[in-house]
Queue: 4 jobs
Job 1
Amino acid sequence: MTSTDVTVIVIDPAELKAADAKKLAVREGDDSWKLAELRELVTTLNSDVARLVEEYEGVEHELDDLLHTSEGAGDDQADVGSSALEREQEMSIVNNTRDMLEQSVDALRRVGKGVYGTCASCGEGIGKARLQAFPRATHCVACKQREERR
């Protein structure tokens, strides 16, 4: 566990078997996952997790420094407003990075459970092309569009 409170998992791509790839959902009309495709996807997700953990810890440290150095910012309203804006921006970056990290870890968990590629809304296959472009996707295009219209 890191300071992110996200339990980070890593899957060794070399330990994946052809059967692991075959059991993953695919969209109607797509070919089944090939072992090489799954290994490449897992390698990408592992890299994303490592990068995001490092990034998260860095921005978290920057936010902590900003919070501690701005405590005595002075009485000037412009300085106080500028510091507040800077804190809000850093907090937004920290939250966004944490969300992406959680999504990447969740994708690895779904691979490990054999449910990767299944839409969280309709239960159909998400589509290999979508997952290869955006490995953290949890919804097929139709369900994602429906969700965004709400």
Job 2
Amino acid sequence: MIKSHNNFLYSIDRDLIQLNKNLKKMIIAEHPILYAAAEQLFKGGGKRIRPALVLLIAQVTTIDQKIKAEQKRLAEITEIIHTASLVHDDIIDDCEKRRGVDTVHNLFNNKVAVLAGDFLFAQSSWYLANLNNLDVVKTISKVITDFAEGEVQQGMSHFDNQISIEDYIKKSFYKTASLIASSCKATTILSNCNRNVQKDFYLYGKHIGLAFQIIDDIFDIISSFDNLGKPAGSDLKNGNLTAPLIFALEEKPELNYLINQEFQNTLNINKAIETIKKTKAIQKSKDLAEEHIQLAIQILKKKYSYKNIENLLLTSYYILNRIN
């Protein structure tokens, strides 16, 4: 390959730098507490994979690879929506840290955090409406419904050892893949692409999103606080049974005892993590993530020249190689 997995974003470097600057300008709140809460969210930085995909797809689907102003704004909207969902996630899961930075509800309180999340959703909706494209509004606004659906599904299946991989994938779609798939599709709408192209990039985003979530869930088991920016085993503690645990249950039914005990203490969480690591569950989860990455890649490879989609392919490999 011509470029390494590390510099696949070189063509949009400037756009991503500008995006970070714009995000802070876009979050305008009259109340200082609300402003401070919103600003706190962008301190941790994060991977910015969602806006990066929007910008890269814009390059692939526009004439002369010129990214439109509306597509740059869509990238910003996508990151604001994602960040809003994290605030509500952190309240529900009672996370003290996110990307190594104090979470909003931990720094202020739950009430302020709920309002900050709602405020970000409202801001993103306002900017979305200002794109003046009804198809894009319809595509992206569906995501916010999916977030709620995903949270409800997750809440209803806490510590449920009967959850299947199919249930887990469905929940992962609502919580993560829906936003990535929809923003990929919305980018092609802004490029005036036909419905077949829109569908291709929606499916590409869907599979990338599912792989991304599976890999995040693997990290929750195998990583340290320094790498995660939050304690390992957070999903177990909150009763969110993810791919590694679901696969591990097939080999180690004794994990059911710890699930039924609702991982009462750190000792139980550590015991569960050690048990999972002794099984083939991590490898099976990696294989599942790779399956979705390969599905995403095949969608593009069938219809587009390697030269045009090289950076999108490298992004896909980067997501997978985070755990290698």
Job 3
Amino acid sequence: MLHKTQGVVFKYFKYRDTSIIVKIFTREFGIQTYIVNGVRSKSARSRIALYQPLTLLDLVVYRKNGAEINRISEVKCNHPFQTLSTDIKKTSIAIFLAEILYKCVKEEEEDVSDLFDFIYHSIEMFDHINTGYENFHLQFLLKLARYLGFGLDSPEEHFLTVDPEELNILKTLVYNSYEEGIKISNAQRRALLDQIIRFYKVHVETLKEINSLQVLKEIL
């Protein structure tokens, strides 16, 4: 049976010579696994861009109860990125966040509309912000925690080892919108990211090694 839904690409894996297996977080069904045939062939090379990390899609998909892998009937990009795919800093942040989402969002989640809308609109906002976006990943992770069930209404209750200045920064990151610029040094940014990752690992058993973390730290 065919269904329309929106989706956010989390990750894809090469499959055979020209195909991929792609993990997409959908608004209607949560995380779904799809096989896409021929997308890596020379004649279809441009289509692989649809499955890059955090791409926002409009989908028509087949759904069969009990099937572990389904197929996509129609796909188009809902929000062609203006800066996220060309700015190396933004691209590095996107790859990092896609890895975190892939490892943190549970496949068995049923009502995911609020979580999906948060992720979807945050990515849209990230693409539009032209300055002061270097802290986006920190804000995103702090805000995401609430949707994953271990939210940060009071950062001081969860980050007992940070100094007062960093704690104030954490509070600002939690409560401010993405558009509000927050001045943070590179050293503070890296220290806060380490604290946030440690916080996540306490609550998410599947979050162990993060392959994209070192690259992100080098870029930022």
Job 4
Amino acid sequence: MSDVAPGVRVAVVTGGARGIGRAVAAELVARGFTVVLGDLDLEVTRTTAAALGPDVVARRLDVRDTVLLARLVDEVEDEIGPIEVWVNNAGVMPTGRFTDQDAAAADLVVDVDYRAVVHATRLVLPRMLARGRGVVVQVASATGSKPMAGLAVYSGAKAAVVGFSEALRRELRGTGVQVSVVLPYLAATAMGAGITPQRGFRAVTAEQVGRGVMWAIERRRFAVYVPRRLGVLARVFGSLPLRVRDAVDDVIASDRIGLGAER
């Protein structure tokens, strides 16, 4: 028999113990959601949950494990309530030249940053469709539209997330279920530590990304760049001839993000 409380609004955030995930959770709590944080380190996740308040629940989650993912969806729906918002935030971002990156590191990026997003979305979407409501948010990256040297596999995985989500958006029209992608610039979190932004840019905060996620949810936006002006810059840059893009990247030192970072 279910112990679900009537009227509870439930959100799940993967990679929720730190950084962007924690900031997203804080925004959801402020809007009255009961939030489930899934992350690898259960103790840290419990500490974060306790700090965010009584309406936050910690669960150990390895997003590469489809059994754990399925179990989490079942437990949340059976014990807490129907999932209204699911945020695929967990990610890894090793830097360095592709030829220096071993196969295990590349596989990890694909597994966490793309394959897990597909699996989690596949698990939660049928329940949302059956209810005719719900939101799936993919925390991607600006590198999904503007790939960076030194982040070849990461850029590819994030581009795949954007493409997957855009195709899914068309499938979901008229269902009441929304899919959104949030594309932040380099974030000032542990994952972005040791990386120097391009000239003329500054790292965004986890809180800015959290607000971007809420903007996507509440305004029903498909793609949200953080900061928002980045979307305009990405479109303009993408329209330039390749040699001009190379020249711009050279001038603003784009390569130091992926090639000049502390690995």
